[in-house]
Design brief:
Elements (H helix, E strand, L loop, with lengths): L2 H6 L5 E5 L2 H9 L3 E5 L5 H14 L5 E6 L12 H5 L4 H13 L19 H11 L6 E5 L5 H10 L2 E6 L2 H10 L3 E5 L5 E2 L5 H13 L6 E4 L5 H9 L4 E4 L13 H9 L5 E4 L7 E4 L2 H6 L12 H18 L3 H6 L17 H25 L1
Parallel strand pairs: 1-2, 1-9, 2-3, 3-4, 4-5, 5-6, 6-8, 8-9
Antiparallel strand pairs: 7-11, 10-11
Helix pairs in contact: 2-3, 3-6, 5-13, 8-9, 10-15
């Protein structure tokens, strides 16, 4: 039994990160490993989502992903209302004007989200309280060292702790901190990512970590096919962590407008920008990014203020686009990796898992055939 299977119980080491509970459950039922992204959930919402997954996953393993940055200056008293008050009028005015110029209506009350962000320390602990009350097999953290309380709770509950990293030095710090699994995510990835490519990062991390202790490495970043999965494992990874490929599934949380744009997109149509969360994250480029990079832009705010400003705007953009507003359609964007160029249709999550299995098996067979001929 591989160390990864021992830690997580996964059958086929295809890890699927998604904000959609339906995707998580479908992937785990099909033999992969669904991971629920809880960034936008309140503790009550997370409990509701995980209870649904518990009831629909058929006893198969799944996990939860939280976004707890290592470096931030937030305290337990930083409520959503208090943080919203820090959003400068200059940025509010820029959003008002951008939306108005594109025929999109938003009220002053809706302009800035007042929900308490998941990265506020007290809220992070509350989300972990909820997660560990459910039969999860993995809990993951992005943007820095996994919090000590996460590692301690993981050991107490027998839950593997994973951490996303984008460079060898990050991997070494995580291993010394005590994480169980590393997700080595290349710069091709959607969402928050570093700058080192997946092809370089995976062997670099695998070799460095091997000298310290047995920590499974999952490859991430632009992985959309079973062939890429096989290549990643040939480089020493024990499995893959995927996200963007599920955005084109029938169960995904993405809008019809975004899925249309995603299917038409080329791999060069993504951009690594701070204009959504305040930290560099890869997204499908749209007129939103053109505006924030323009001469009149006030510049991005730090996390979490930028997300509190952009989230209501994108909700309004999606609604307007669904109602036929072409200018709003041009603004539509979402996090997606450079592998978007490999997506050409919408399929069910189950079909995607099965296709990964077939492509992976074919790739391994072809590789073995090449070795026999050598």
């Amino acid at each position: 039994m591989s160390r990864l299977k021992e830690l997580t119980g996964v059958e086929f080491p295809l890890f699927a990160f998604s904000h959609c509970r339906d995707v998580v459950a479908a992937v785990s039922r099909a033999g992969g490993f669904g991971v629920f992204g809880a960034t936008r959930c309140s503790p009550e919402e997370l409990d509701m989502e995980l209870r649904w997954i518990d009831e629909h996953v058929d006893g198969k393993p799944y996990g939860v992903d939280l976004l707890i940055p290592e470096n931030h200056a937030l305290g337990d008293d930083d409520s959503g209302e208090a943080l919203a008050a820090r959003v400068p009028e200059e940025h509010r005015a820029f959003i008002r004007d951008l939306l108005a110029r594109n025929g999109i209506n938003i009220s002053e009350e809706e302009l800035v989200s007042t929900g308490t962000p998941s990265i506020v320390p007290k809220r992070s602990e509350e989300l972990m309280d909820v997660a560990f009350r459910h039969p999860i097999r993995l809990i993951a953290n992005a943007l820095g060292i996994a919090p000590p309380s996460m590692i301690e709770r993981g050991k107490k509950h027998g839950v593997a702790v994973a951490a996303l990293i984008g460079a060898k030095e990050h991997a070494l710090r995580q291993v010394h901190a005590g994480v169980d699994i590393l997700v080595a995510q290349g710069g091709e990835a959607g969402g928050h990512c570093g700058e080192v490519s997946t092809m370089v990062l995976i062997p670099e991390v695998v070799r460095a970590v091997k000298k310290i202790r047995d920590v499974p490495v999952l490859a991430a970043g632009g992985i959309m096919t079973g062939e890429q999965m096989a290549a990643s494992m040939a480089m020493g990874a024990q499995g893959v962590w995927t996200g963007s490929v599920w955005l084109a599934s029938t169960e995904a949380e993405t809008s019809e407008a975004f899925r249309e744009k995603m299917i038409r997109a080329r791999s060069r149509d993504t951009v690594r920008s701070k204009a959504r969360t305040g930290k560099p994250s890869r997204q499908l480029r749209s007129s939103w990014h053109d505006a924030w990079e323009g001469d009149t832009s006030p510049g991005s705010l730090p996390m979490p203020l930028m997300g509190m400003l952009s989230r209501p705007a994108f909700d309004a953009i999606e609604k307007a686009a669904a109602n036929g507003n072409q200018a709003a359609y041009e603004l539509v964007s979402y996090w997606v990796g450079q592998g978007v160029g490999l997506i050409d249709q919408v399929r069910s999550a189950t079909a995607i898992v099965q296709e990964f299995k077939v492509e992976f098996a074919d790739a391994v067979e072809n590789l073995m055939g090449s070795l026999e001929e050598a």
